[in-house]
Amino acid sequence: MKNTLLKISLSLLLILFFSCKEDSKNEEKETDVKSSVSENYNISILVDLSDRISLKKNPNPTMEFYQRDLGYIKSVSEAFTQHLKSKRMRQIDDKMQLFFNPEPESPEINSIADQLKISVDKNNASKKLLNSINETYAAKTSKIYQSAIDDDKYIGSDIWNFFDSKAEDQCVEKGFRNILVILTDGYMYYDGTKFKNGNLSSYLTPQLIKQNGLNTNDWEKKFTTENFGFVKTGTNLSNLEVLVLGINPDKNNPYEEKVIKAYWAKWLKEIKISHFEIKSAELPSNMDKIIKDFILEKA
Predict the structure, then answer these.
(1) Superkingdom of the source (predicted)?
(2) H or E stretch including 236?
């Protein structure tokens, strides 16, 4: 009788032990889900409105480069809304915005850009707002590109200055996961920010790559030993993640794409950006998963 009671007691203890262990596992899973879901996003999109989008200078019969940009922006906004919809309404505190540098002279473009500064929190979050974001971004960014193309006045791309003097203030907020998506062909040029420091420069053009002798198969050795690259900016952007989309190298140099990516990778590491990716100007259908994986992955 005593043995039977002892066996029953042990069985009950084992059942209780494993039940508690399972509950503990479930609580851990719920905690992981909640911590992932409640993360707040601050997404910025920096658009290079230089002549890279010109239909006259850079036509592309497969898909024009401005149309590729619009496809990339669509994927970014869809990732943003997917993130919002994964959260409880009271947890939402997320932002998305669009920048240019320098700002276009067109008042219409700048007005539309202001309308694309979206801030969603528990006070204004609604299904209607969340469902409208993708359509709003698609329609308004299309107007921006069309206006720039119609205007046909391309003043260049001052990405270096944006990182040096604006990125920290405009793209980084404490308590957020800060993501900057840059739409560019990888080159940088702006008359007002053009200088060199030895083999380092604030700009990058096909002509400069050729002048630097980085158009042969030993370009990598030369790049490293002679310290080529962008001039380091004075900012520490360790709280920023960067996704560069649209690299479109000059076809006259078979090493151009690798050189451009080497410039960018070296520069981003120097300003303490540890999480970044640099992608070529593929079709939006091929880039959709890459963009969404970058944005929606756990930081």
Answers:
(1) Bacteria
(2) none
Amino acid making up residue 261 = K
CA distances 130 to 37, 92, 125, 136, Å, are: 16, 11, 7, 10
The dihedral formed by the CA atoms of 64, 80, 141 and 241, expressed in degrees to the nearest 10: -70
Instruction: Judge contact between 53 and 281, C-beta under 8 A.
Output: no
Structure tokens belonging to residue 10: 């042990």
Is domain 40-296 classified as CATH 3.40.190? no
Tens of pLDDT, residue by residue over 70-95, are 999 999 999 999 999 999 999 999 99
Categorise residue 224: left if φ over 0, alpha if ψ from -120 to 50, beta otherwise. Answer: alpha
Q: What are the start-end ranges of the E strands in 227-272?
A: 229-230, 240-247
User: DSSP secondary-structure letter at 192?
Assistant: G
Boundaries of every domain in the chain: 1-37, 40-296
Q: Is the model's pLDDT at 104 over the cut of 90?
A: no
Q: What are phi and psi of 249, to 5 degrees?
A: -75, 155
Task: Order the strands of the 196-197 sheet from edge to edge.
Answer: 196-197, 200-201, 229-230
10 Å Cβ neighbour count for 232?
14
Q: Coil, strand or helix: which one is 246?
A: strand
